[in-house]
Each structure stands twice: as structure tokens, then as C-alpha cells.
């Protein structure tokens, strides 16, 4: 397990793996970690700044961590800034494991307990609220369920397809290879962004935003396998003349068994690295499409459509925390995948494994 030892001693790869683990765990437990439902709005609470946490009342009495009911005040027509109305007479204590909106923790497991919440009329909005008065932190956590799963769905479709077609082309050669590689070249010449825009325009209007985007991911995954197929085909060309493949032919194994059970597993090192480095492209694609209105649509949350608030100049200037939070998560996720992929590439380098 020399590669595992090398990976564990790569601090950047370890950082990427830990960060991704935290992100995926947070998305899995979003209902428990989020203070509120991502769809519930706070009355007169649109575009509130991050909630201030107090320890003493206005009279100086120590009551522990608490917040006060906060609503938006009148807007200054010249500057666009708003005064906040804070009810200092009704402190709401912060508590762990409080009851709140019901959610599904895991399939078949319902709960209404949240990690952090308030007792009383005050609400805790650690990252503020959006234009509809919805808690930004809750929407980020639930949005991660979509944004982080998009990449897994994409590679689950495109990689098996690319490996199988590349394996068939490389193993059989001849006209089969020529035909499949011409198809690959055609698919590689299709501009992805224009394809996505065209798909978004022709999909049935009755689909929900989640169904719509999942369908886009499935369709584009059937196109994005072409690059992987070319690489796998080149590896199979060199592997099919190895002794273990000839031995499998001698004992009567059919071609499909040889490809799937004997040849393709030998390409696993490259496939693992390529998969790790390909997931960020799906996450970025979701962000871009949702940003321009072709992906996940409101009120469903995703990191991409949360970032779409950046198109509003007043929010960009007056409420920058609404932009920086989803942008930072997207950047950190892509960075973490790239760091982990680079670490795997170094650890699984066959030239080093032989030492």
C-alpha cells in the first residue's frame, strides 16, 4: 500500500479530502444542520445582515447567548441603505437541538430537531437572509445536496460508457475502432455551452427545476464520455497483447469478459484520477447554468442560483455576504477536488509504485 502511504503524507491532498468530507457530510445532514427550511420566509426579514449574537440584555443582565427579533426598517432613497428594527424587549435564547421545521434526515427517517435554533420570536441568520427573507445558511446547506451530487451523477454515467466504448474500440481494432473513433471525434467537436443552452430551451416546460437539470446532466454525460474513451482505447491497445490477456483467450474467455474483467481493471489508476478531476467540471457547469437561468430555478436552492444574486448591483454592493458565501463554497470545492486529484496522480504514478 505504498500509494496510500504517499497519499496520507501529502498535506494538500489530505486537506482536499478532509474538506470534501466535511462538505458532503454537511449536505447529507443538511436538514439537521440548517436552522430552518430553505423555503420558509421571515416576515419583514428580506436582505437582513448576519444576526448579531448577544450575551447580555440591554439592561446589562447576563442571560447567555441570545438574539433579538429583527425586521427591515425604511430604505434610504438616496443611499439604498436600510435601518434595522431590533426589538430589544424580547431576547430569544440560543439553544442546541431545538424543535423546528420538519425534514427528512435519511430515507424513512423524519425529524424536527435542528442543531442550533432559538427559543422565542427571534431568528438566528448566521449568513443573513435573501430577497425573500429565507435563511441563507439553510439554503447553502440544502443547495449543496444538488451542487455536490451533480458531479457524482455525471461521472456515474459518462465514465462507465467511456471505458466500455474505449475498451471495445481498442480490443477489436479494425473497422470497429475506426467507426467508434469517428463518433468520438464528432462528439468532441460539439461545443458544450451551446449544447446546454439548446437542451435547456427544448426541454418540456412542466418539469421541475431539479428534474430539468438532472435531465440536462444525463444528456451531457452521454456526450462527455468521448475524451475518456480515446484515452482508454490507447491503453487497451497496449494491454491486449499482454500475457494475461493471451492466457484468458486460451482458456476460452469471451471477448466481453476479457475486456471487462481483465483489461479495463488495469486502467483503474487513470480512471480514478480522471474521475476526481472531472467532478469539478460538472459542479462549475451547474453553477454557470443556474447563474444564467438555465439550471436549478428558484425557489429550489443550489450554489449556482444563490450566486445569481451577483447580477443585482445593489446586492453586490450592499449585501456582499450573499455573494461571497456560495462563491467561496464553489471555489473551495473545485480546489479540494483538484488537490485530491493531484495527490492521487502522484501517489498512483506507476513509475513510483515500482520503486
What do these coordinates show?
The protein has 355 residues and is α+β, with helices and mostly antiparallel strands. It is built from 15 helices and 6 strands. It has helices at residues 2-8, 11-28, 30-33, 136-172, 174-188, 192-202, 209-221, 226-239, 243-250, 255-263, 268-291, 303-307, 313-318, 321-347, 350-353, and strands at 54-56, 62-67, 70-75, 82-86, 92-106, 109-118. α1 packs antiparallel against α14, α4 (136-172) crosses α8 and α4 crosses α11. The radius of gyration is 26 Å and the shape is elongated. The mean pLDDT is 83.
Detail the poorly predicted runs: none
**So how many helices?**
15
Shape: elongated
Mean pLDDT: 83
Secondary-structure element sequence? HHHEEEEEEHHHHHHHHHHHH
Based on CA atoms alone, the radius of gyration comes out at 26 Å
CATH homology-level superfamily of the largest domain: MetI-like
* Count of discrete structural domains: 2
- The CATH topology of the largest domain is what? MetI-like fold
CATH class of the largest domain: Mainly Alpha
Helix content: 55-70%
Largest sheet: 4 strands, antiparallel
Features:
four-stranded antiparallel sheet, MetI-like fold, two-stranded antiparallel ribbon, elongated, 13% strand, 355 residues, alpha+beta, single chain
Amino acid at each position: 500500500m505504498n500509494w496510500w502511504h504517499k497519499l496520507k503524507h501529502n498535506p494538500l491532498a489530505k486537506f482536499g479530502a478532509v474538506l470534501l468530507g466535511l462538505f458532503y457530510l454537511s449536505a447529507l445532514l443538511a436538514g439537521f444542520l440548517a436552522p430552518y427550511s430553505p423555503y420558509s420566509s421571515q416576515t419583514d426579514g428580506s436582505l437582513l445582515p448576519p444576526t448579531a449574537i448577544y450575551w447580555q440584555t440591554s439592561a446589562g443582565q447576563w442571560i447567555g447567548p441570545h438574539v433579538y427579533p429583527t425586521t427591515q426598517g425604511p430604505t434610504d432613497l438616496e443611499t439604498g441603505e436600510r435601518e434595522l428594527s431590533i426589538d430589544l424587549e424580547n431576547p430569544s435564547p440560543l439553544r442546541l437541538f431545538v424543535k423546528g421545521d420538519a425534514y427528512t434526515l435519511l430515507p424513512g427517517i423524519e425529524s424536527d430537531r435542528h442543531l442550533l435554533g432559538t427559543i422565542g420570536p427571534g431568528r438566528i441568520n448566521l449568513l443573513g437572509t435573501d430577497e425573500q427573507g429565507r435563511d441563507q445558511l439553510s439554503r447553502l446547506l440544502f443547495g449543496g445536496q444538488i451542487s455536490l451530487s451533480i458531479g457524482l451523477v455525471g461521472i456515474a454515467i459518462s465514465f462507465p460508457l467511456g471505458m466500455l466504448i474505449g475498451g471495445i474500440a481498442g480490443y477489436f481494432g479494425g473497422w470497429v475502432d475506426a467507426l467508434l473513433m469517428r463518433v468520438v471525434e464528432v462528439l468532441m467537436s460539439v461545443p458544450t455551452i451551446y449544447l446546454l443552452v439548446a437542451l435547456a430551451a427544448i426541454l418540456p416546460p412542466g418539469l421541475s427545476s431539479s428534474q430539468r437539470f438532472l435531465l440536462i446532466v444525463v444528456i451531457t454525460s452521454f456526450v462527455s464520455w468521448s475524451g475518456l474513451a480515446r484515452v482508454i482505447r490507447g491503453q487497451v491497445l497496449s494491454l491486449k497483447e499482454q500475457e494475461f490477456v493471451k492466457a484468458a483467450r486460451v482458456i476460452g474467455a469471451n471477448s466481453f469478459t476479457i475486456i471487462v474483467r481483465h483489461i479495463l481493471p488495469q486502467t483503474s489508476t487513470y480512471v480514478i484520477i480522471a474521475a476526481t478531476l472531472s467532478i469539478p467540471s460538472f459542479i462549475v457547469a451547474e453553477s454557470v447554468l443556474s447563474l444564467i437561468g438555465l439550471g436549478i430555478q428558484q425557489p429550489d436552492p443550489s450554489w449556482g442560483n444563490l450566486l445569481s444574486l451577483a447580477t443585482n448591483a445593489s446586492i453586490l454592493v450592499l449585501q456582499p455576504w450573499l455573494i461571497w458565501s456560495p462563491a467561496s463554497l464553489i471555489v473551495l470545492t473545485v480546489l479540494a477536488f483538484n488537490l485530491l486529484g493531484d495527490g492521487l496522480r502522484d501517489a498512483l504514478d506507476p513509475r513510483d509504485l515500482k520503486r
